[in-house]
Amino acid sequence: MFLSIDTAVIIEKLALIAVVVVASLVIAMYATFAERKVAAILQDRVGPNRAGPFGILQPLADGLKLFFKEEIIPNFSNKFLFILGPSLAMLTAMMTGAVVPWGDKIHILGRDFSLQIADINIGILYVFGVVSLGVYGIMIGSWASNNKFSLMGGLRAASQIISYELALGIALIALLMVTGTMSLKTMVVQQQAHWYSWNIVKQPLGFLIFLICAFAECNRTPFDLAEAESELIGGYHTEYSSMKLGFYLFAEYINMFISSTIMICLYFGGYGIPFFEHTVAAHCGTNWLAFWHILTLLFKVACFLFFFMWVRWTIPRFRYDQLMNLGWKILIPLSLFNMLVTGAVILFHQYGWHF
Questions:
Q1: DSSP 8-state secondary structure symbol assigned to residue 53
Q2: What is the pLDDT of residues 296-334, one digit of tens each?
Q3: How many CB atoms within 10 Å of residue 179?
Q4: Which among 246, 317, 307 is positioned nearest to 35, based on CA atoms?
């Protein structure tokens, strides 16, 4: 008995969603392990090495610890919102992977299966719409905790996201002017010809602004003012324990993973194999090409994740006034300048000196 085309497509998408969700969770788990190992190397320590060979089972031990810790909900908190906060943070973190092209396609049972859950023509708008909702998880959790340190962390997170999303959005407008599309898959395909067709070559200043804003969006050092331990105990998740705390921590690492993937798709050719794309495509079948595409994308992601961790353990946290000054007085003017220059260059190429 053969399945109808609609049923086959639904099964295909559900299977891909399951794979992406599980992969995101596993990568987030082992990103915590990599973070501790990178910190140990930079500080001339060993790092976790007890749970399993070379400590590779440490993330499982940490997960079990969070699962079995006591669930504590403060008496004076808003219990519904207290639970909703971390749930919303985790949900929005997972949703952003829906429009990421993880590879081209695979051929199974006589059908081609796309390695992208949803190829929508406004993929970038979807990503930033979902990302902008992520801060509500922090704000709701911090307010529901009924703790002044948590509330201060939530206020910092809200103002930080608002400040840096402006510069990030303007930098993205310049990139959209160059590519002429908001589809992530189309952007990746446009960069497949050669490594110098990557958008990082066309928009180096835009990428720098985007990268700095990505650190702020992910609440990563030196922009982790929302959970500054030395000032706010733990910030917005001070009152959280067990897996509700785990959701906040996992959401941060999933955001790092997805942010790295988005930057790679926008500026570094996505799953494209630098220097060898045409050679690999000519000598490999569809499935092997998809395998190398996924491997290439994960390698690029690993490089970005290492950079996130390297910055955390080498650069001190900004003061809050420095954070705001950088966002409003430096990044926004720079992004506006980049957009105007990009528009002028495009007009010059189209019309020469006659515009």
A1: G
A2: 999 999 999 999 999 888 888 888 888 888 888 999 999
A3: 17
A4: 307
Closest by CA position to 160, among listed 333, 317, 336: 317
Q: How far apart are CA 178 and CA 276, in angstroms?
A: 25
Dist. CA 159–CA 30, nearest whole Å = 30
> How many CA within 13 A on the CB side of residue 7?
4
Q: What are phi and psi of 221, to 5 degrees?
A: -55, 135
Q: Are 66 and 242 in contact (CB under 8 A)?
A: yes
Residue 268: burial class (beta carbons within 10 Å; 0-12, 13-18, 19+): buried
Alpha-carbon gap, residue 99 to 228, rounded angstroms: 32
Least Cα distance to 244 among 145, 134, 96, 153 occurs for: 145
For residue 181, what are its two tokens?
């599309």
C-alpha to C-alpha distance for 128 and 134, rounded to whole angstroms: 10
What is the mean pLDDT of the segment spanning 272-283? 76
Give residue for tokens 């733990």. 234
Lowest mean pLDDT among 53-67, 89-103, 230-244, 254-268: 230-244
Q: Strand, coil or helix: what is 194?
A: coil
pLDDT of residue 216: 86
Tell me the domain boundaries of the chain: 5-354
% of the chain surpassing 90 pLDDT: 16
